[in-house]
Structures are given as C-alpha cells and as structure tokens.
Design brief:
This protein is an alpha+beta fold. The protein has 14 helices and 36 strands. The strands form nine sheets. An eight-stranded parallel β-barrel has the order 15-18-21-24-25-26-27-28. A seven-stranded antiparallel sheet has the order 1-2-5-4-3-6-7. Its EC number is 2.4.1.18.
Length: about 725
C-alpha cells in the first residue's frame, strides 16, 4: 500500500508532501488509512460519529512507525479518530492528515504578490475550529525548505511526526493540528534546500514566546477580546495632530520600577496599567512611548534586537495582559507609542537568519545584509515577501492591539547603504548612489498603508541626518512620517548646556541654530534613553557647577525645551533628575523624589506639561514658522534668549526668556510686540521647583520704551539660570 521510497521518506521525516501519503485516501475504490507514530505498538481507526473501531492498521514492513490498512465496507471518506496503543497505555487523537488546507486561493495570491496586508491573520499559529474540530492552524513561509514540521511537547519535539503541507508557489507550509490551543509551546523544524537539518526556529509570526532564555513560540489566541476603548479610539485623531500639545514619556518597562521584595523583578503589564499609567497621567504627559516590547532574547539589547516581532514580551505577562495595559492607557486618555525596529535583527539561531537554510529575510551579501554597529542582519526590503512581513507587522500592532503610534528606530541606518561602513564595504544602489532605494520605498509604503487603513495613528522617525522630507507626505516625495526626532537640536542644546556658564557666550549659536531648520519637518524634541547611557551620565550629571547650581541649570534647560517649537519627549527618570545614568537592570531611584531639589524638578516638568497643554500659543503652530518670533537672539554676552510663541489668530502670545548665566538680570528690558500686562505663567526659579523664588510678582506691565526693536517693552527680573514664561493678558 506504500511504496518503499514514500515509506522511507515518511519514516525519516523527509517527505516533501506527507499529505499525499498519510491520512485517509481512496485507493482502488477502497477507503485506506495511513498513520505514522514511531512510538506506537498498534493503531486503530475509530468512527467519530459512532465511536466504533472500524479498522486495525497493520505495520508497514518497509518503515518503522508506519501503519496502514483499509476500512471494510466503506466506500466514501468519513470522519475518524486514531486510537493508539503503547504497551498498556491507550489513547485517542484526531489525525492532522485528515483535514484539508485552511489557506484560500486569495490568500495564496496575495502572499505570492507580497500584498497581503492582513498577513498575520493567515500565517502564524491560529486557534480555530476547522471542519468541525477545535485546534490550531500553523502556517509559515519557507520557500526553499524541502520539508517543514511543527514540533512541540505534543509530538515529543520530533520533526518526523507532523510535517506540513506545502502550498506551491507561495512558499508557505501549513497544517491544522487538532486539539492544540492557547498556551501550546512550539517551533518549526526545517530541512534545508540541500537536505540539511536546520536549527529549530521560532515562528516569525508567533504571537507569544517562552520566557528567555527559552526560545520557543507560544500559541496565543488573538480573537475574542472585547475592547473597551471606543471613546478614546474615536477622539485620538484629533489629539495626535501637529497642532496638539504632544508630550511623550519614554519608558523601559523592565526598569521603570522593580519589586525588591520579590527578587528585584520588573512590574507586570497589570502593575504598569495602574502605577505607570496613573503616574504619567499625573505628570501631565499625553503619551507613553515604550522601548521595544516585541520579544527579544537578550535583556542588554533593551529590545532593539527583536526575534519575535509579533509577540509582546512575556517578561511582563501574556498578550491578553498587554492588551489590558493598552486599555488602561486609553482609559486615562494617554496615547501609547511603541518603539518599532524594522531596521535589523539578530543572528540568534532560533530567529530569522538563514530561516530556511538560505538568506531569506536578509541579503545574501554581507555588504548589504550585515550591520557593523550592532552585529545584526539587515532586512532585504526589495523582496516583496519581506517587505510584506514588516508592513503587516506595523498594521498588526496598530490594528490588533490598538496602538496609537509607532516610533521607527534607526531610520538613518535604513536610508543609506553606506551607513557606518567604510569604502569598499557597501554596495551602491542601481544608480550607483548611496541611498537604499528599497528601504525608502518600504518606509513610504508602511506610512501610506498605516495612515490609510488605521484612523488616528501617528508614526515618528528617529532619523539623524538631513534626509529631506521625512515628515512630508509620500505624494510630495516625502517618507510619509507624521513626525521626526530633532537630533540636531538635541545634540546642540546638550552641548551648550554642559558648558561652564562663563564659556556659554562663545557657543551662543548652538541654541539658535535649530531655528534655521525648525520648520522643515514636524519635529519632536527628544531627550531619550540614548542621552543617559554608555558613560554619558544622567541629565543632572551633565549640568556644570555644584549642588543647587546644577539643578538650576537643568530647570532652565527644561524650560527652554518646553518653550522651543516642537513636541516634547523625555526619558523616564529625567523628569526628577535621576542621580546616575540609566541602568536597565535596576529600578529608577524613586526615593530621590522626596528630596526638595529632585522633587522640585519633578514639579517643574509636571507644570511645564500642564502649561504646554493649556496654552495654545505653545503648541498650535509648533510646526509652522509663523508660530515663532525671535525677540533677542544675539545677547551672547549675557547668555540671554528671548522669543515669542504664537498660536492661531486671536490667541494670546507667550514670551519666553531664558538666562543661562548664574547672574541675576534686574530691570532687564525685553521688547514685546503688544502693550499690556504680561502674566508670569511659569518661573523655573520658583521655590516650588527648588529655586530661589526670585521673579516679577506674577506679572510685568509694558511701557512705551523701545527695546529689542519693539516700541513697547517690559522690565523684568530674570533670575540666574532660569526660564520664564509670560502670556499677554486678554483684555475685554
């Protein structure tokens, strides 16, 4: 009943089409059954409807573990189960090889074209009912493999037991495994193009993972969740426009807070849903941004070397618990942004590298496919299926988990083929240039599809070069991002603030230069995790001086930042002047907030956020040149900067004045465009913030005394190392 070649290949797990041999077949008008189980002594066929044993399968003489036989008096296929016997032990199970395929013709077509925008719904592991039976459907793309099997505890991790069905030109392999459900641990075992057995692979579309250092995927049920955030989803589009007060709190979930009483463990998604969400809300932030939470093997990578792009890391809980965290953010009117890493991936054996024995997701040429900075592999964006995998991943987070935005990591490394490479170590594009045309097309497609199919989301690029049009629409030759991190502003301003105040007059331009390009993109001003690691020191450590002077410098700098055009981003701990640089293995030093100076900085950041939110002139025209006007940009000797922020027509203007010397400027005249009373909305030197409480008694009235090129001016006390905000009082 089974020829020797088929029998040998089935028993060794090398048959390219096991469904043509195993299962139920009509042979010479007889219903035959063939089953493979290397540990069984006997196999019987049981009628599912009646529970009666229909046939006993005999051992095939030409292969160990292979059983075959015919069903007497049966002419048509019927539903059945297999009864196995091993010694005194007997058990029944569904036969995976009696079930037809799950993927449809449209799925096959879209997969082949690299155009399946719901790709995660057909690939990966999906709990479902198929042909009336509950189980899990597994599907994986491995076009160059000779055989792919799903393995797990359910089959003793034996790749011979459950080889999958190939789907022709798609390169996809699939199998429906009856009886398996949520929580099942699995991997794929592949035989490569040359007959070699490859390391077992985690599922590229796995929705769950084991806790590192274990590396298997875990079946997680995607459907069935009833979302409770309809109100937020309906209004978020209006809250994420460029004219809104977006203030982002960047967080590493593993070290925001820990529980020392329980082995210094990080908080769970549930604990973050209460503690982190309520804290960020109280601090006035509008968004949380999580450093990468897609599953990653090595804690020290902070998530930037992901292996499971579709799995929220198990370090803090399950997929369903992550969704509860998302809902908690939305219930508190906090947007949630995820750090997304489509630029590179690690070479871990269970990951995407050489997935089917060939460079499938990566380039074959290491000059194109290897990142020297991070010792990682680069995606082959020009391959339609790889681009589809990544685009679908962006949509997966936005659609399946109601994520409000994606911050795309290391965009510059994607845009240029020679990024961090020496001459002779990179391959030019088809036109001989250095731009990565395929990566550019991928980013444009991702943004086009994301904005086009998901209402109210935002994408943000971490891009450190002068590449044009990062936040311009794709139909205007841009990359299509909503915002771009302003790395130039960050580098220049941090360089300036670290100077001794006596020398700042020689570096005055570093604080003004950003205004020459501030409106070429929709910018976010980032003080991120990258600025407080690798020996750079914490924000308070960067400040010159000693004791109180350090804190005054930091407060003045934060005031300058919140007064500057652009949305805001601050890394956790920076908001209360964390004393030492960030350590991913330790909790933030929350006890410092009880100290008046640290608590004062925390109060300042909270009040800056509230001022930013409640003052239209500080955010409405953040990304437009008419929203900014210099009053004094050349007062280098005094290290004073004064500027106006404007909102839309009818909005009261705001005057911002920064003094970056430790010298008080008394009766200092600053020109104003309009006569009237200017209300002091915030003074970084206030006692509430740990300052000397020097200021202007809450307001300053203008006089017709020319200054700064204006006919009217105000006389101000500008405390040392301070930033002041004044808003023109409305008159009836």
């Amino acid at each position: 009943m089974i020829n020797d070649d088929d029998a040998q290949k089935i028993s060794t797990g090398s048959h390219p089409d096991p469904f043509s041999v195993l299962g139920q077949h009509i042979v010479d008008t007889k219903v035959t059954h063939r089953a493979y189980h290397p540990n069984a002594d006997a196999v019987n066929v049981v009628d599912t409807k009646t529970g009666r044993t229909i046939a006993s399968l005999g051992r095939a003489s030409n292969a160990h573990g292979l059983f075959a036989g015919t069903a007497p008096r049966r002419k048509n296929p019927f539903a059945y189960r297999l009864k196995f016997t091993k010694g005194d032990h007997t058990w029944e199970a569904e036969d995976p090889y009696r079930f037809g395929p799950v993927l449809g013709e449209l799925d096959e077509h879209l997969i082949t074209e690299g155009a399946h925008l719901d790709l995660w719904k057909v690939l990966g592991a999906h709990v479902m009912d198929h042909e009336g039976v509950a189980g899990t459907h597994f599907a994986v793309w491995a076009p160059n493999a000779q055989r792919v099997s799903v393995v797990g505890d359910f089959n003793g991790w034996d790749g011979r037991r459950n080889p999958m069905r190939g789907r022709g030109q798609t390169g996809v392999w699939e199998i429906f495994m009856p009886g398996l459900g949520d929580g099942e641990v699995y991997k794929y075992e592949l035989i490569g193009a040359h007959g070699e057995l490859l390391p077992q692979k985690a599922d590229p579309f796995g929705f769950g993972s084991e806790h590192p250092p274990k590396t298997a995927s875990v079946v997680r049920k995607l459907d069935g969740h009833t979302w409770a955030d309809r109100k937020w989803m309906g209004k978020r589009a209006a809250l994420q426009r460029i004219d809104q007060p977006i203030s982002i709190y960047e967080v590493h979930l593993g070290s925001w807070k820990r529980v020392p009483e329980e082995g210094n463990r990080p908080l769970s998604y549930f604990e973050h849903a209460t503690q982190l969400v309520s804290y960020a809300k109280d601090m006035g932030f509008t968004h949380l941004e999580l450093m990468p939470i897609s599953e990653f093997p090595f804690d020290g990578s902070w998530g930037y070397q992901p292996v499971g792009l579709y799995a929220p890391t198990i370090r803090h809980g399950t997929l369903e618990e992550f969704r509860a965290f998302v809902e908690a953010c939305h219930a508190a009117d906090l947007g949630l942004i995820l750090d997304w890493v489509p630029g590179h991936f690690p070479e871990d054996k269970h990951g995407l590298g050489q997935f089917d024995g060939t460079p499938l997701y990566e380039h074959a040429d290491r000059k194109e496919g290897f990142h020297p900075d991070w010792n990682t592999l680069v995606y082959n964006y020009g391959r339609a299926e790889v681009s589809n995998y990544l685009v679908a991943n962006a949509l997966y987070w936005l659609k399946e988990h109601h994520i409000d935005g994606l911050r795309v990591d290391a965009v510059a490394s994607m845009l240029y083929r020679d990024y961090s490479r020496k001459d002779g170590e990179w391959v030019p594009n088809k036109d001989g240039g250095r731009e990565n045309l395929e990566a550019i097309a991928f980013l444009q497609r991702t943004n086009t599809v994301a904005y086009g199919s998901t209402t109210g989301i935002v994408t943000i690029a971490e891009e450190s070069t002068a590449f044009p049009g990062v936040s311009a629409p794709v139909d205007h030759d841009g990359l299509g991002f909503g915002f771009k991190w302003n790395m130039g502003w960050m580098n220049d301003s941090l360089s300036y603030i670290q100077e001794d105040p006596i020398n700042r007059k020689y570096h005055h331009h570093k604080m003004t230069f950003a205004l020459h390009y501030a409106f070429t993109e929709n910018f976010v001003l980032p003080i991120s995790h990258d600025e407080v690691v690798h020996g750079k020191g914490s924000m308070i450590e960067k400040m010159p001086g000693e004791g109180d002077e350090k804190f005054a410098n930091l407060r003045a700098y934060y005031g300058y930042m919140w007064g500057h055009p652009g949305k805001k981003l601050l890394f956790m701990g920076c908001e209360f002047a964390q004393g030492v640089e960030w350590n991913h293995d330790e909790s933030l030093n929350w006890h410092l907030t009880e100290h008046p100076q640290h608590g004062g900085v925390q109060n300042l950041v909270r009040d800056l956020n509230m001022l930013f939110r409640d003052t239209p002139a500080l955010h409405q025209l953040d990304c437009k040149p008419e929203g900014f006007e210099w009053i004094e940009e050349g007062s280098a000797e005094e290290s004073i900067f004064a500027w106006l922020r404007h909102g839309t027509k009818g909005t009261a203007p705001v005057l911002v004045v920064s003094n970056f010397t430790p010298v008080e400027r008394s009766a200092r005249r600053i020109g104003v465009p309009l006569a009237g009373r200017w209300i002091e909305r915030l003074n970084s030197d206030a006692a509430r913030y740990g300052g000397g409480d020097r200021g202007n008694m809450g307001f300053a009235d203008s006089k017709q005394i020319a200054s700064s090129g204006r006919a009217n001016s105000v006389s101000l006390i500008i405390p040392p190392l301070s930033t002041l905000f004044f808003e023109l009082e409305e008159t009836s």
